[in-house]
Write a structure and sequence with these properties.
Blueprint: H1 12-35, H2 41-108, H3 112-118, H4 122-192, H5 197-220, H6 228-238, H7 257-267, H8 276-279, E1 284-286, E2 297-300, E3 306-312, E4 315-318, E5 327-330, E6 336-341
Antiparallel strand pairs: 1-6, 2-3, 2-6, 3-4, 4-5
Helix pairs in contact: 2-4, 6-7
């Protein structure tokens, strides 16, 4: 018979030990959370600034991938159009060759000597023979052209396939960079959320004070302008003071750093590359700050991931980072590398 014994219950001592262990674990976790010190306002700012800098590095890589994607998309479209046109021309040549072959078959199926023997008019035969020679020449020319078209078409199809593969890889890279930027910004926002409303207000007031001082210094400056085009680009950028920074944006209402400079020069009729790294090679480099003129580009950080306009009197006009707007700022707030005169 099956056993109906009750399952063995845990002893009271064992239950007590388990309960005590669980309680201790909760207490330790609580103590660890309480023991973690709250970061000061300045510590939070330093960490947030670092995260924003890392986000901007990723943003410029994102911009580069996006620019590459747009170029590849255009190249793929152009190649696909070429392939379609070449295929149409190839089909037309094949039709022509088919007509030539049919004519040759109709005219040349009987041995020429027999045709001459049967012909009531030797002159008529000779005319036909001449036509046959012409048909053979046309056929040979058509064959050569078809072969050339086929080679071209194969090459273009291979190139289009490679470009499509490159485009797929670039889109993958774009997605990764976008995710990286969003992760850095989310981490920065999480840190900012640990501040009190008063601390946030104090940080904002300090930033506003720095921006005001920078504006005053620009208004007092009398530095020369690089060129007419640079003056026009700088003026376009000035018209966007107060516009929000948005990563990957290039106007007309929101900008990132290189988005502002490329948009502004476009308003002056000058096309410059999209990323700060590429813009660093778009003109003559100026290594001394004392030689800079209003409208010159200014490049910052060792990896060249930030760019703005020189605004005169030791100030720059730029789109700083997430959470800010296009504004003036001291050139010494960031590690200056060199200027670029477009």
């Amino acid at each position: 018979m099956a056993s109906h014994r009750r399952p063995k219950q845990p002893s009271r001592a064992r239950v007590t030990v388990l309960t005590a262990t669980a309680a201790a674990a909760v207490a330790l976790t609580s103590q660890a959370a309480q023991a973690e010190p709250k970061l000061s306002k300045n510590e939070v700012k330093a960490k947030v600034d670092k995260l924003y800098e890392e986000a901007e590095k990723a943003t410029e890589k994102y911009n580069g991938a996006k620019e590459k994607q747009e170029k590849l998309e255009k190249q793929v479209d152009d190649l696909q159009d070429k392939v379609a046109r070449e295929q149409e021309e190839l089909n037309a040549l094949r039709d022509t060759l088919g007509s030539v072959a049919s004519a040759q078959y109709r005219s040349g199926s009987i041995d020429p000597s027999v045709q001459l023997f049967l012909s009531a008019d030797p002159d008529d035969y000779l005319d036909k023979a001449s036509t046959l020679d012409q048909l053979s020449t046309k056929q040979a020319d058509a064959l050569r052209e078809i072969q050339a078209k086929q080679r071209t078409l194969t090459q273009q199809r291979q190139e289009a396939t490679q470009k499509l593969d490159d485009l797929a890889d670039t889109r993958t890279e774009l997605g990764k960079k976008k995710k990286e930027v969003q992760g850095k910004l989310a981490e920065a926002q999480k840190l900012l959320n640990t501040l009190t409303a008063k601390e946030k207000a104090e940080l904002a007031a300090a930033e506003q004070e720095r921006a005001t001082r920078a504006t005053e210094r620009v208004e007092l400056g009398n530095t020369g302008t690089a060129s007419g085009r640079a003056a026009a680009a700088f003026s376009a950028a000035q018209s966007k003071i107060g516009s929000p920074y948005v990563y990957g944006a290039s106007g007309p209402n929101t900008f990132d750093c290189s988005g502002l400079t490329s948009w502004a020069f476009a308003q002056a009729g000058v096309s410059i590359p999209r990323t700060s790294q590429a813009q660093a090679n778009a003109g003559t480099r100026i290594y001394s700050q004392s030689d800079l003129k209003v409208g010159d580009l200014v490049i910052f950080y060792g990896d060249l991931h930030h760019v703005g306009f020189y605004a005169g009197n030791g100030q720059v006009l730029h789109a700083p980072r997430t959470g800010t707007v296009v504004r003036y700022e001291s050139i010494n707030n960031m590690p200056f590398q060199f200027g670029v005169r477009i």
